[in-house]
Every structure is written in C-alpha cells, then in structure tokens.
Amino acid sequence: MSALADEIKQSKPFASKEEEVFLNIQRTAEVLGWTMNEILKPFELTRGQYNVLRILRGAGEDGIKCSEVSERLITKDSDITRLLDRLENRGLVSRERDEKDRRIVISRITDQGLEILEQLDEPASQGIKRILGHLGEDLLEQLNALLVLARANVK
Amino acid sequence: MSALADEIKQSKPFASKEEEVFLNIQRTAEVLGWTMNEILKPFELTRGQYNVLRILRGAGEDGIKCSEVSERLITKDSDITRLLDRLENRGLVSRERDEKDRRIVISRITDQGLEILEQLDEPASQGIKRILGHLGEDLLEQLNALLVLARANVK
DNA sequence: TGACAATAGTCGTTATAACGAGTATCTTTA
DNA sequence: TAAAGATACTCGTTATAACGACTATTGTCA
Fold first, then answer.
1. What is the pLDDT of residues B109-129, one digit of tens each?
2. Residue A105, strand partner residues
3. What angle do CA B35, B38, B42 make, to 5 degrees?
C-alpha cells in the first residue's frame, strides 16, 4: 500500500496515479498549513490575514487596491473586503478612498501591522525551514518544478 | 524571477527555498481544487461532501462511525457532524444510533447517494487526468514521493 | 451629451475550518 | 457500586471560500 493510501486508511488502491497525486497535494497543503496556523495563533492572525499583511507591507507607502490584493491571492474581492474590515478594526490596516478615482479604496499597513509582521518574520521563516528543511536544496528545487508543472494545465 | 514569484506578482525573492515550496504547495492545492469544484458543481456537492460520500461508499453496508470519518479526513468531529447533517437532509446519507454502544452514530450512504457517486466517477476521474495527465507516469511518481517526504516532518 | 457598459467595492447567503463548551454514554477503579 | 475518567457526538462562535446581487463611479461611443 502506498504511503498516502496507508495514511488515509484507504485499502482500495487509487483509481489512477493522477488521483493519488491530486489527493496527495491536497493532504500535504493541509498538513503543512497547520504548522503555519500554530505559528500565527499567538498573534491571533489567520493565514489569509497574514498573507494580506505581507502583501500590504510589500506595497509600502503607496498602499494597494482591494482588487489587486484579491488578484495576488486569487480570491474574490468580496472576501478581501471583509478580511480587510477585520484587519482595519484591529488597527493593523488603514483604508481611504482614492481622490482621483473614487471607486477605489487604498489600503495601507499601519505601524502596528508592521510591528506584528516583524515579530513574525523569524518564527515563520524558522517554522517553514523546520518542516521542509530536511528535503535539502536539490529535492526542494525538484518539488518546486514539479508543482509548477502540475498546475500548468489549469490556470 | 521564478514561475511562482511571477504568478503571485511577488517581485521580492523568497526568503528561502523552503518558503517558496511552501507557498507553491498551497497555491497548487488551491488551483487544482478548483477543477474538482467545477466537476462537483452540477451535483451541488462540496469537495468535503464528496469525500465523505466516497468514504461511506467504501464502508459499505456496515456504515461507519462519525469519528472514523473525521479521522480519515483529518477534520474535527464537530465539522463532520454538520456535514453529515446536510447530506442526511438531502437524503444521501442515513444515520442511526448503534444499539450496543449508544454513544455511537452509524452513518450509511443511501441508494440515492450511491447514484450520485456513480454519476461522478467518470467525470471526476477524467477531470483529474485532464489536469495532471500531462506529467506522465514517472513525474507523477516523483511528485508523489516528494510530497510524502515533504510532510514527513509534520504529522 | 446621454445611454450603456465596465470597473471597484460592498453586502447577503451557505458551507467549511478551527476553536471550544456541553451532553450522553460507556469504562475504569477505588 | 459510586465516582472519576474516557469516548462519541452535538452545539456555539468567528473567520473563510465561493457564489451572486447590488451601489457607486468612471469610460465609451453613437
């Protein structure tokens, strides 16, 4: 029995190797995500919120449009609106309407938001290295290449 | 710039190769998941519901405990309870208390549930082959091995 | 310019994910 | 056998994901 089949207690073999890979990717993403959840928990941030804060930090003083955030995260605008709502309520993000195009809302990370991210930089980096570091440079590179290839037929 | 960095419009290089792989896995799982969502949409099933139905089909006449379902899917019991509620309301699952141990609730897939799964077997199988088939036997095998290795340090 | 489309964001809804509290039913043990 | 603990599930809550409807603003073009 394959390692994955054993892990999910599936005695029946997979219908195809493709299906095994598919389930394997889902499972791996889920399991690795837990580690990040653990790291974020003390800061009361979800993974989505953390990702948005990092995007806002990258955008700097200029801030960024709501729609651009959702574009980078591949999520709906509507979800980003509400995610930003919560970050704004916690004082980690500020928002204001663009003067030139009043449809646009510009979001910026606040000093308080930057502070949290700075506190997270090391633990996050270390945590990820702790769970994936054992693969080593070569296998990480192989895995990256295969994953990019794996979704080449989708997006 | 790497393919992933380009995809998420991240000009800043990744802090580490581990981090790139981590984000890459999350992204790939998400993108591949969309395909399955599309296949399930006409049947008004979520991926979680589909997975549970397949587990119930695998369990056969004997049915299966709620806690065993959550064990296989690695989710909380509480979430499975509510997921089963909805499947039961739609007539795809039946539930009854175990006579011997009245704490236990046994769930079984109904004929109607089996019917839906049968209608889905081909499209699901074909859909996954369509998005991952281009990798070929060898790369699929490599990817499987690397993914199992990738989460070896976590669970 | 005035109708119409496109863009940017908000709000509503259902189902999940993750956390935790609570209830009923066995099991163990003093 | 009564009390304590373990087990199996249910219910409550907040934040997401995915869908869609809606408002406000800007752009296009006949």
1. 999 999 999 999 999 999 999
2. A97
3. 155
What angle, rounded to 10 degrees, do the helices at B47-59 and B17-40 form?
Answer: 80
Selection from B13, B2, B18 nearest residue A58 by Cα: B13
- How far apart are alpha carbons B91 and B150 in whole angstroms? 39
Q: Which two tokens stand for residue A129?
A: 């290295």
* B1 Cβ under 8 Å from any chain A Cβ: no
Classify residue B118 by its DSSP letter: H
**What is the reported pLDDT for B3?**
64
pTM as predicted = 0.89
Using the predicted structure, report yes or no on whether residue A123 has a pLDDT greater than 90.
Answer: yes
Write out the two tokens for A142.
Answer: 């192989």
Nucleotides of C under 7 A from a protein CB: 7-12, 15-21, 24-27
Determine whether the interchain pair B143/A147 forms a contact, defined as Cβ–Cβ distance below 8 Å: yes
Report which residue type is found at B29.
A
DSSP A39: H
